[in-house]
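Data deposition worksheet. Section B asks for the primary sequence of the deposited chain exactly as it was used as input, without tags or linkers unless they were present during the calculation. Section C holds the resulting structure in token form. Section D is free text for depositor observations; keep each observation to a single sentence. Incomplete worksheets are returned to the depositor.
Section A, Depositor: J.P.
Section B:
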Amino acid sequence: MDSPPDAPPASPLQGRRNAVLVLASASPRREVLLRQAGVPVGRIVAPEIDEAPGKGEVPRAYALRIALAKLQAVAVGEPAALVLAADTVVSLGRRILPKADTAKAVEQCLRLLSGRRHQVLTAVALAAPGKEARTRIVVTRVAFKVLTPIEISAYAGSGEGIGKAGGYAIQGRAEAFVRFINGSYSNVVGLPLYETLAMLEGSGWQPHKSE
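Section C:
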């Protein structure tokens, strides 16, 4: 009689409660997105890393490097947890737009984006107990209408774009600027939910009925 085939090795997360999910991020938007998708966040730890782009660094490589740096900075202190990190970049070709820290920087970003198509890239990195880190890069293409000086000034003055990659938040007043979008909307907000949940489930995480 043939022996039954060997069962596949169990995930470290199977057969017990889900590991606590630690979000390695200073962005409140990512926590909101995860909770909207039914993913409970156990802890939020803001990683302390240098996010300055390297000389000549292209957007995709930059986003991936920063996401992994955030992940590693937090995962070292959370060996039993699922640790999720992400970095979102707004780019015009090979040019990385900054996270606007002032109203003037918001205006500068909007002038560059006015009437043009740009890309929003988010690199997602996940560390699970007993597994190597997994990564994914998601790209969404966005086109802005031609913005008037009054629209740019009013938006910058609202404060909504301060601290945002590319100087705008698509989930707010800037949604009225969008003429065209191709790809994940949640990616532009700050975390591509479809891909992130697929990564979590691939690491053994499962939603509870009560979540």
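Section D:
Helices lie at 28-36, 59-75, 103-113, 149-158, 185-189, 193-202.
Confidence is low (pLDDT under 50) at residues 1-16.
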